[in-house]
Amino acid sequence: MIDFWLAAGLLLLVALSFLLIPILRSRRAQLEEDRTALNVALYQERVAELQAQQEEGVLDAAQMDAGRAEAARELLADTEGVAAPRVSRLGKPAPLLAAILVPVLGLGLYLHFGASDKVELTREFSQAPQSMEEMTRRLERAVAAQPDSAEALYFLGRTYMTQDRPGDAAKIFERTVAVAGRQPELLGQWAQAQYFADGKKWSDKIQALTDEALKADPKEVTSLGLLGIAAFEGQRYQEAIDYWNRLLEQLPPEDQSRIALQGGIDRATEKLVASGGKVAVAPVVKTAALLKVRVDLAADLKAKVQPGDSVFIFARATSGPPAPLAAKRLTVADLPATVELGDADAMMPQLKLSNFPEVQLVARISRAGKPTAGEWIGRSQPLASSTTAPQKLTIDSPDK
Questions:
Q1: Distance (Å, rounded) from C-alpha 386 to C-alpha 186?
Q2: How much is the pTM?
Q3: Rounded distance, CA 395 to CA 199, Å?
Q4: Structural fold of domain 150-274
Q5: Which of 200, 252, 265, 306 has the fewest CB atoms within 10 Å, i.e. the most exposed one?
Q6: Rounded to whole angstroms, how far apart are CA atoms 119 and 37?
Q7: Mind listing the pLDDT tens digit for each residue in 26-52?
Q8: Under 8 Å between Cβ of 197 and 166
């Protein structure tokens, strides 16, 4: 911050120099004017002495004229090179007044419209906080300086939750939603903070928030975890197990929270069995197939194709109908390219990738734009339709 004010002071001195230079120039002009007046007075005094000497008979007319001419030459020599005085319509008070008002006005405008607080915050955030309280104060100042920053609001809300301040967190998450929109993750955070702020009492408001979040994203983890907690507290153990199992599916294998979550599922199972109930087995849901494939052209074919040639990329069943199960169309100019082939790209509703265990990837170049016949082709080895690893496919053979 000190560097900033030093730079601002330097710029202020430069600005003031433009205002003070005219004043200094006017003083110099005044000095030149005073010197000229003095020379004129000395000339007049010299002429008066010559006239007195002529009247006394000391000088004759010729000597008088010679003395007058010599005095005139001296006057001209003294005044030679003196510039004509400049006429200033502003006068001396105007530059002085401007020199005072400009920095004062500039400072006032900067303090009102400037961003000195943001500069200071940037400097603070460049250094690691010494405590959670210091981090909270920084985030609060950041929100005050940038009330429309969704990131600052979000992190402040999360910080309030870690400090067991759910009431403050709920208000902040509500503001975050107003700024960033009704995103599922933000709705889940808001619902969770509101639940703990209300003393773990479920309400229609919290239910509406979680419903909206899961409708937009069925895998929204905060809402799934919260609904599991609310169901467990309400002794609806089967619901708690279902929600937590859905949440468990979203967590990566190395996530440490899986242990605690599995412990919650086990406790809910024990209580359900102890109350005479039986754990319902969730039905196996067939996931939609999605293959990722990177398509490229063999080096020896690049000189033989044209940028506008059509490229058809499709997957077909190794054992089944010959019709493509999913297809995309590009041009040679798009290569190399990575595309996704999934159930959403099915040519017919009954022919989906997920309905066939094994498929083959094919890429064909057709100058005529026909997907069934072309000039060059590339084929993959058979692979499972459930494959998630990215595949590589090179167009390298004549299409026969």
A1: 32
A2: 0.47
A3: 63
A4: 1.25.40
A5: 252
A6: 57
A7: 555 555 555 666 666 666 777 677 777
A8: yes
